[in-house]
Design brief:
Elements: H1 10-26, H2 28-38, H3 40-50
Helix pairs in contact: 2-3
């Protein structure tokens, strides 16, 4: 788990990281780039397997 810093708690850091992950990998710009390089099947995998997983933190 990331350590807290002077301004943010560990929970806030993880929350930011998780939101940034979802925003980046679900963006059309990223998905179009991946689609051109690796094909639509990889974009489908990202959407159906990676982005649909619920991130569970204890």
């Amino acid at each position: 788990m990331p350590m807290r810093n002077e301004n943010l708690t560990s929970k806030q850091i993880i929350s930011f990281r998780d939101e940034a992950f979802m925003k980046y990998f679900s963006s059309l710009q990223y998905q179009n780039s991946v689609g051109k390089i690796f094909g639509q099947n990889i974009v489908d995998f990202i959407n159906n397997e990676v982005l649909t997983k619920k991130i569970v933190r204890i």
